[in-house]
Design a protein that fits this description.
18% of the residues lie in helices and 26% in strands. It is built from 16 helices and 47 strands. It binds 2-acetamido-2-deoxy-beta-D-glucopyranose (NAG) (2 copies). The site of one 2-acetamido-2-deoxy-beta-D-glucopyranose (NAG) has 6 residues, from helix 1. It holds the Pfam family PK_Tyr_Ser-Thr. It is a single-pass type I membrane protein.
Length: 836
């Protein structure tokens, strides 16, 4: 039995034998594996090359510059130990290795130490320092009789890289068995998007790439050990079990599918190999009450901080949602050293519409005096009781060696959304044969790529960088040029704008159903040809939409600006507007109460994301039942937030803007004061909730004056305690009393006269989830009980809307009883032509 690297992993003879088939593979060229530009693998003190994990380490003589060194060979090497470790170079005086570098930038540096005894040198008593380019990186090594591999990640900025070994004291000497210096993949360490986690809340950690990082732990959470042989950068990953504080809190999850690497977003196979993303720990809820909340916690020993100041460590966490059945149901919080590091992490919304899509997040945290870094994950407030979960797929902890306080920039402003480093990488696969070979060696499997601009390694940054923060705070052309669709493609998709394919029309122009070349169904929104009126809105819409990916928001597929056309191409949402499913279309089957609740929950999630998912929230401004679309699986998708304005800036509480929105849904406060806040959306959403409950339009001019305005009418009945009297007849007998009560209350709170009194979308979401739970567990309305809900209900006093509908009669009605305010060039206000 032979012990391999510092983590005490055992490398048995079987392992060595297992390598043999792979060694053959190694000789087949695989152009898509990562090939470092600088790649020095050195067998120190030896007269022959040696290989380890398929990599050939060459003689050190040409890199070495000192006479006072000795080459030693182990005469009694342990059985099965790699030949590489049978020799060492020993230094009795300071001496350096020098490497001429082809490329400046981030490099990996590894030292292999395997002490043995030869010619009177007992290597495990060696005393020496190691400096790289003049900076001390190793001293006072704890040597045992095992292999010790020390890894550093550092930026090399000179053409000649020097590693100096300096014996300590009179009798001191240094030694080394093998060295690796190789170029890291591009953007392996980025200077932006790294969060400093600690007592001061949000701070950004700057200039990470100028730090020398020493790898302390590299963990394949929920999985097995990964050896350098199976890692894209020849790293070793070890299982997490020994670090779990409560083993019972976690349950391993394994996926059999290769991760869905994303084009320009998320992690790459070089950031961590597939196997890291294909396993995870999740909450073990077997021994607990279903809805109980707890964290999964790991403790990692690191260098203790002495004298009050901790030692900063880079904590790189890897995530890949291999546990959720659908998108946007997993919401969890991440803590480091008990400080919140990432709140309400929703992996679906930072990846592009697929599950099992790998991402990683970089944090910097200080170790405490006890020398522990603690990582916890636990369900967030946004998770529904049935779906509480939290995951972690991988963790790397690296000590920052050259600490420099100027790197920390304090940011007092609280950002609503935490920042994630989403590193994008694209690796093109061009031939099936090489892809197959790759799969064996690189573990890179099929990847859905829409655009591949470069072969091999260079990552394509469709979204302009690695962090969501950066993505959203730097609007600009960089983000969306990849979404351009040639006019000819749009012509063929819509059969040259065939009138029979029109599915809607609005102030902006017509909307056509179309099918792109790759068989993707789309909705094509074409501005009036020749009219450039809405150009600023057009660009706003592209800028906003190109950044937004969420299960409950309609996503932009592309756009076209050729021939003075303004065309936006959206994903096609099969069942169309919610409104059609509520009333006015006898042909469509009525939705059940559960379906309606789920649709409202989905739409609320989408809106909540718009409001909070960005540094500066986005206000929709035109929430109505025609702008909530339903897909085949009855999943709600909020549409038409193209004219959405960003939320208020730091010092303002509202955005002043021309009133836009739809009659019947319009926030009275916004209407009167022309002040837009996210609470205006909450108001409109309240109207939608009553529409869903009552199955009637927000405004129906054919009804009596008291009934015209749904919001007023419904609140009146609710205050009389007789909400069940105005429930959609299709729902009679379906709704449980407690669920109805919760739902009515929630809708009513949304309709509060003043924005400050209205709940946030997050509260609305929570309450709707709760109404759904009550529906699943509560009692039917018909079986009348008085104590219907077990929750302390704080029903606000009935609010009857102050502004009467007569204030708004200058607006016109469309034939659905819906009126558009400020139409003209407003292309976000798509009116469906369901009445045609
Ligand atoms: C590499 O991975 C494969 C598949 O996961 C596994 O069977 C094999 O044992 C691994 N090899 C090494 C040397 O870790
Ligand atoms: C999870 O851990 C954090 C940090 O230690 C703590 O604040 C939070 O209360 C924990 N959550 C639960 C449900 O225990």
């Amino acid at each position: 039995m032979f012990y391999f690297p510092d983590t005490g992993q055992k490398l048995s003879s079987m392992d060595i034998l297992n390598l043999i088939p792979y060694i053959l593979l190694f000789f087949i060229p695989y152009s898509f594996c990562f090939t470092p530009l600088d790649n020095y693998l050195i067998n120190c003190g030896s007269h022959a090359n040696a290989s380890l994990f398929n990599r050939v380490f060459i003689l050190d003589s040409t890199f070495f510059s000192a006479d006072d060194s000795i080459s030693l060979t182990n005469q009694n090497p342990p059985p099965y130990s790699p030949t590489l470790y049978h020799t060492a170079r020993v230094f009795t005086n300071s001496a350096s290795y020098r490497f001429s570098m082809k490329k400046n930038g981030i490099h990996f540096l590894r030292f292999h130490f395997f002490p043995f005894k030869a010619q009177g040198f007992y290597m495990n008593s060696a005393k020496f320092d190691v400096l790289v380019d003049g900076i001390l990186v190793l001293s006072d090594l704890k040597l045992t009789n095992d292999v010790l591999v020390k890894e550093f990640i550092l930026k090399i900025q000179s053409n000649l890289f020097e590693i100096l070994f300096r014996p300590v004291g009179n009798s001191g000497f240094g030694f080394v068995n093998a060295l690796e210096v190789f170029t890291a993949p591009p953007d392996f360490v980025l200077d932006y998007g790294t969060r400093l986690v600690g007592p001061n809340g949000l701070e950004m950690y700057k200039n990470l790439s100028t730090r020398i990082l020493e790898t302390i732990h590299r963990i394949n959470v929920g999985g097995l050990k990964i050896t350098p042989f199976n890692d894209t950068l020849w790293r070793t990953w070890i299982p997490d079990e020994d670090f779990l504080v409560f083993k019972n809190a976690a349950k391993a999850a394994v996926s059999t599918h290769t991760p869905n690497y994303q084009n320009g977003r998320g992690a790459t196979p070089e950031i961590a190999p597939d196997n890291v993303y294909m396993t995870a720990q999740q909450m073990n809820r077997e021994n607990s009450i279903l809805a109980s909340r707890f964290n999964i916690t790991w403790n990692f020993s690191v260098a203790p901080g002495g004298g009050g100041g901790g030692v900063p460590h880079l904590v790189r966490l890897h995530f890949c949602d291999i546990v959720s059945p659908v998108l946007n149901v997993l919401y969890f919080d991440v803590y480091i050293n008990e400080y919140i590091a990432y709140k309400d992490l929703d992996l679906s919304s930072i990846t592009v519409h697929t599950l099992a899509s790998p991402v990683y997040v970089d944090f910097v945290a200080d170790s405490d005096d006890s020398g522990v870094i603690q990582i916890s994950v636990g369900p967030s407030d946004l998770s529904s009781a049935m779906r509480m979960n939290a995951i972690l797929n991988g963790a790397e902890i690296m000590k920052v060696v050259n600490v420099n306080d100027s790197s920390i920039v304090h940011r007092k402003k609280k950002l609503g959304v935490l920042v994630i480093s989403v590193i994008g990488g694209v690796v093109g696969l061009f031939t099936i044969i090489t892809a197959f070979l790759l799969a064996m060696r690189c573990r890179k499997k099929k990847r859905k790529l829409r655009t591949v601009e470069s072969a091999g390694w260079t990552p394509l940054r469709v979204f302009g960088g690695s962090s969501l923060n950066r993505m959203l705070s730097e609007p600009g052309s960089r983000g969306y040029s990849g979404l351009k669709i040639p006019f000819s493609d749009i012509q063929s998709a819509t059969n040259n704008f065939d009138r029979s394919l029109i599915i809607g029309s609005g102030g902006f122009g017509m909307v056509y159903k179309g099918v792109l070349k790759d068989n993707v169904k789309v909705a094509v929104k074409r501005g009036m040809p020749g009219s450039r009126q809405g150009l600023p809105e057009f660009h706003t819409e592209i800028t906003v939409l190109s950044k937004i990916r969420h299960r409950h928001l309609v996503s932009l597929v592309g756009f076209c600006e050729e021939n003075s056309e303004m065309i936006l191409v959206y994903e096609y949402v099969e069942r169309g507007p919610l409104k059609r499913h509520l009333y006015g279309s006898a042909a469509l089957p009525p939705l059940s109460w559960k379906q309606r609740l789920e649709i409202c929950i989905g739409a609320a999630r989408g809106l909540h994301y718009l409001h909070t998912g960005f540094v500066q929230g986005i206000i929709h401004r035109d929430i109505k039942s025609t702008n909530i679309l339903i897909d085949e699986d009855h999943v709600a998708k909020v549409a038409d937030f193209g004219l959405s304005r960003s939320g208020p800036c730091m010092n303002e509480t509202h955005v002043s803007t021309g009133v836009k929105g739809s009659f019947g849904y319009l926030d009275p406060e916004y209407y009167r004061r022309q002040q837009l806040t996210d609470k205006s959306d909450v108001y409109s959403f309240g109207v939608v909730l009553f529409e869903v409950l009552c199955g009637r339009p927000a405004v129906d001019p054919q009804l009596t004056r008291k009934q015209v305005n749904l919001a007023e009418w419904a609140v009146e009945w609710l205050n009389k305690g007789m909400l069940e009297h105005i429930v959609d007849p299709h729902l009679v007998g379906q709704i449980k009393e407690s669920s109805l009560k919760k739902f009515g209350e929630t809708a009513e709170k949304c309709l509060a006269e003043y924005g400050v009194d209205r709940p946030t979308m997050g509260d609305v979401l929570w309450n709707l989830e709760y109404a759904l739970q009550l529906q699943e567990s509560g009692q039917l309305r018909e079986t009348h009980t008085d104590s219907s809900t077990n929750e302390a209900v704080n029903v606000t006093n009935g609010i009857v809307l102050g502004s009467s509908s007569s204030n708004r009669t200058e607006r016109y009605y469309d034939n659905n009883g819906c009126s558009e305010v400020g139409t003209s060039q407003v292309f976000s206000q798509l009116m469906t032509n369901e009445g045609r």
